[in-house]
């Protein structure tokens, strides 16, 4: 393994286990059995190292999703197809030993403090257009803003659940399914997010928190 790859692997694990803010460059250097100068040489800063960690597996996810979207573009597409296209590439990262990466991204999305979010948002937005186009075919007439919101929530749910499958199973209690069943259930949840409410409820948007006017 090259020095650069060793640093990325060590940072990925440490950031996921301890949180980005709690990990020093010296800790990463010690885990990778290299020196701080190597971190500055390859990445320039801690932010540069985090960016490299995130982009490494994003490339795999993007590649797999692109392939799925190309297959879907020429035929009939459903929201369930798109949900699988959202979830399965992340599962593939898990299967390839990327559990620390998925957990890290889930933590960054949940915390929302800005660290690494620019990298994630940039990659997500570049892929949004293809998803929105296919979603528009499934849900004609729904504004692009709404479809983008649904995609964002699909990303949040997917990374949160897959970032810690055992936590999800623990929350379910004694009736928790197997990890494979959790993934299948996640696809169904993402399908419902992408599909949105049934037609007879769409006219009620914007009514949250409003109370009917008093007639007395």
Question: Outline of this structure?
Answer:
Residues 195-216 are annotated as: Disordered. Keywords: DNA-binding, Transcription, Transcription regulation. The chain is mainly alpha-helical and 216 residues long.
Describe this structure in words.
73% of the residues lie in helices and 0% in strands. Residues 207-216 have low confidence and may be disordered. The chain has a domain at 55-197: Tetracycline Repressor, domain 2 (Orthogonal Bundle), CATH 1.10.357.10. With 216 residues, the chain is an all-alpha fold. Helix 1 packs across helix 4 (46-73), helix 1 packs across helix 6 (99-111) and helix 8 (144-163) packs antiparallel against helix 10. The protein is globular and about 60 Å long. It has helices at residues 3-18, 25-32, 36-43, 46-73, 79-95, 99-111, 117-138, 144-163, 165-172, 179-195. The relative contact order is 0.10. This is TetR family transcriptional regulator. GO terms for molecular function: DNA-binding transcription factor activity; transcription cis-regulatory region binding. Keywords: DNA-binding, Transcription, Transcription regulation.
